[in-house]
Design goal:
By secondary structure, the chain is an all-alpha fold. Among the domains are: 46-250, Tetratricopeptide repeat domain (Serine Threonine Protein Phosphatase 5, Tetratricopeptide repeat); 514-591; 597-743, Lysozyme. 66% of the residues lie in helices and 0% in strands. The chain is built from 40 helices and no strands. It has helices at residues 22-37, 46-57, 62-71, 74-86, 91-106, 110-120, 128-141, 145-152, 155-158, 165-178, 182-190, 198-210, 214-227, 234-243, 252-264, 268-281, 287-300, 304-310, 319-335, 339-352, 357-372, 376-389, 396-409, 413-426, 433-446, 450-463, 468-477, 514-524, 528-542, 547-557, 561-571, 585-591, 597-606, 611-621, 642-651, 665-682, 687-696, 698-705, 713-719, 723-743. Keywords: Signal.
């Protein structure tokens, strides 16, 4: 029954539910907002006016279009086709036919896409470029080269503002190649080479190969294979490259570039092959570096014995390379649970490369390994050594904090007080400062120093507005006895820089911009990727700061809550340090949405749970993507394992249950809240313990609870040895607090 450790969620396809009822209200609110923002001093062109009218008229298409593009079931196809026929003389009908055609493209059923795309043509208006591009591509895919050529020949002239011009050129070039007009294809594609795209380079390579210009062909194809190895065209480019007579052999630089990019893409097995070739052909001077890269790739690919064999000796290695060799050997030993061998490599690094960054990394691994095995004295020593040897390193703040925390856990309160203040003084910008402020205040409370506790809690609340510890500090502030005003001065607090308050005021989107209006209309068709691309174009041309909010709103309106959250996280990465009024309301609504709220609230309350806590758990687990599937095969909003879902469904007497229902939000919420309630009860009503178990499993939490006494659940949370689980619990509790601030009583 224990849940898996949280993993990045795969956005794999799966059965989906219809959109939540709240979408309609959101759309109405958004339409009103957009109508208000569309007021402009400039006259609106007839083209823009027409496309805006089409947007207004097609709003009711959105839920059907979304459903079709999500699951592409026969019923969904029938629904959108019926809408298209019912609006045959309107632009909204053309949009519906475009959606049907595009859905068939997603199914790779190009022949079936042709008819709806042709039906969309007469009233496509400024979406004509999308219709023409996909129609021409479908003609090409079904062997109708003449029609493909006719459809795409004058694309740039017919649609001079289209963002699809380069895409259309690729399809048109493909048709030209089949028609024996390789020179025209090459000339067309040459003008599109920058910025580089894998599909364009592949098509250009094929065109030059057809012309017998093998050197140019090899250059384009090699560009794809070596410089864009994660692209879907990379393997085909390699196949074409091998067909060329006298193709130049790969250079060492090309192999290294490809290997490095594959490692970055976590395609470790493919990187192994590239690094192996690099090592085989390397000269004596370059061979140690190549063998280190090969060993590291083998280790990441889980082939640890091979990695170790590569590093038994490393002739000609520099001192730094030998340090890296020892570090990788240590990581191999760690992965194989050979702890004594791991500790020996750390000792070797300590003796041979005490100032090396490889030793710095190894010390962090050593400290964490001791911590996981509850060897607290050794962990404390390792963290302290790490901080003292590398006081300005990237891990120094964390290492200092862990040493200070373990000092507190060992009962050395006076030393801990000093070290908490050192943390604040030495690393005021570190991620651990909020924790140091909170626990220094806690110790002041225990020493009956309410004035000091108040000063530290106030600094914590003011500087780290919506952090986990800031809310805990505000709760404790309410219980402190009155103290003289102003509170005493504490020098350590002077090192904490004040919160930079910069309120964001959104500019209006350019209502007269064609790309903006196309984005709105495409959104009604559920064509979110197209719409986002149009929004970005409008923003790049018109300036202003409206685009992020508009993109997030588009994602919210179309039920892509996970994408809205990610857009905002990238745009405002430090939002937890920001006061609520300093960001636009839309930012917060995108960061902390409430989809499926009726069911979420109902099932939460039935199980005695705070709906905001459940929403926060879902936000952490799946970001409200009902089709999310983890690497451990946990499914849906609350990321339930199929075996867990089956067991809880039996307990709930859910008739006719089958595992695919975990993709249905209502069922996932019903079973997930019941399961979580059971976990809370198992741990005596503690949400902190239950959340830790939801992430790491009941057995681990039982083990951690058995490692000593804790002042309260907050001390337990900070003591969790798994960083992922500790941050998971703190994030969910923090997020629940933000939900309450934003929306009031659930």
């Amino acid at each position: 029954m224990g849940q898996k450790p949280a993993q990045p969620k795969s956005q794999t396809a799966g059965p989906k539910s219809s959109q939540p009822a709240a979408t309609k209200a959101t759309s109405q609110k958004t339409s009103a907002r957009r109508a208000a923002s569309s007021k402009s001093k400039k006259p609106i062109s007839p083209r823009v006016r027409r496309i805006h009218q089409a947007f207004v008229a097609s709003t009711d298409l959105r839920p059907m279009a979304q459903q079709l593009l999500q699951d592409r079931s026969p019923a969904a196809y029938a629904g959108v086709e019926a809408y298209a026929r019912g609006h045959a003389k309107e632009d909204a009908g053309a949009l519906a036919w475009l959606v049907v055609g595009y859905a068939h493209v997603l199914d790779h059923d190009y022949a079936k896409a042709i008819d709806p795309l042709n039906r969309a043509k007469p009233l496509a208006g400024d979406l004509g470029d999308y219709v023409a591009y996909y129609l021409g591509t479908c003609y090409l895919q079904t062997g109708r080269q003449g029609e493909a050529l006719a459809t795409l020949a004058d694309f740039a002239t017919a649609y001079p503002d289209s963002l699809l011009e380069r895409d259309a050129d690729v399809s048109y070039a493909g048709a030209l190649l089949i028609d024996g007009r390789a020179a025209e294809a090459a000339e067309l594609l040459e003008k599109d080479r920058l910025p580089a795209r894998s599909d364009i380079e592949l098509a250009l390579g094929k065109a030059y190969a057809s012309l017998g210009q093998h050197a140019k062909a090899a250059g384009a194809l090699a560009n794809v294979y070596y410089n864009m190895p994660a692209a879907p065209e990379a393997d085909e480019a390699y196949g074409e490259l091998r067909k060329l007579p006298q193709a130049p052999p790969a250079t060492a630089a090309q192999r290294k570039t490809r290997g490095d990019l594959l490692m970055k893409a976590k395609r470790y097995g493919d990187a192994v092959e590239e690094y192996r070739e690099l090592a085989i052909h390397a000269n004596a001077a370059d061979r140690p570096a190549a063998e280190l890269e090969l060993a590291d790739a083998l280790h990441h690919a889980g082939r640890n014995r091979e990695a170790r064999a590569e590093l038994t000796t490393l002739p000609g290695a520099s001192s730094d390379q030998n340090a890296q060799r020892l570090y990788i050997l240590g990581e191999v030993a760690w992965s194989m649970d050979e702890n004594e061998a791991f500790y020996r490599t750390v000792d070797d690094l300590r003796n041979t490369a005490p100032a090396s960054p490889w030793f710095e990394q190894a010390l962090m691994s050593e400290a964490n390994l001791h911590l996981v095995h509850h060897e607290y004295d050794q962990a404390l020593d390792a963290f302290r050594e790490l901080q003292q040897r590398f006081p300005n390193g990237s891990r120094a703040s964390y290492a200092h904090w862990k040493a200070a925390w373990l000092t507190l856990r060992q009962g050395h309160n006076n030393d801990a007080k000093q070290q908490f203040d050192e943390q604040i003084t030495k690393y005021p910008a570190g991620n651990e400062t909020s924790a140091a402020l909170y626990w220094r205040a806690r110790l002041a409370e225990e020493d009956n120093q309410p004035g000091m506790a108040r000063a530290y809690y106030l600094k914590l609340s003011e500087r780290y507005r919506n952090y986990y510890y800031a809310e805990l500090g505000r709760q404790r502030l309410k219980k402190l006895p009155a103290t003289p005003d102003p509170p005493p001065h504490y020098a350590a607090l002077d090192h904490v820089s004040p919160l930079v308050r910069e309120k964001i005021v959104l500019s209006d989107p350019p209502a007269d911009d064609l790309h903006w209006q196309k984005a709105e209309l495409l959104g009604n068709g559920g064509l979110v990727d197209f719409a986002v691309r149009e929004l970005q174009s409008a923003a790049s041309e018109g300036g202003g700061n409206w685009a992020v909010a508009a993109t997030a709103q588009l994602c919210l309106d179309t039920g892509h809550y996970d994408r809205a959250i990610e857009v905002m996280k990238r745009s405002v990465p430090s939002y937890f340090a920001v006061d609520i009024p300093d960001l636009p309301q839309l930012y917060w609504e995108a960061l902390f949405p409430r989809p499926y709220w009726t069911d979420l609230k109902r099932f939460s309350l039935v199980n005695g749970l705070d709906p905001y806590l459940v929403a926060s758990l879902i936000r952490q687990e799946s970001e409200f993507n009902p089709a999310a599937v983890s690497r451990a095969n946990a499914v849906g909003l609350m990321q339930l394992l199929p075996k867990t879902g089956k067991l809880v469904a039996h307990e709930a007497k859910l008739s006719h249950y089958n595992p695919t229902q975990l993709y249905t939000p209502a069922v996932n919420l019903q079973l997930g809240t019941r399961y979580f309630r059971g976990t809370v009860d198992h741990f005596g009503g503690s949400f902190e313990y239950a959340l830790a178990a939801y992430n790491a499993g009941d057995d681990r939490v039982e083990e951690w609870l058995g490692e000593g006494k804790y002042r309260d659940p907050q001390e337990f949370v900070e003591s969790i040895p798994f960083t992922e689980t500790r941050e998971y619990v703190q994030a969910i509790l923090r997020n629940a607090s933000v939900y309450r601030q934003l929306y009031g009583a659930p």
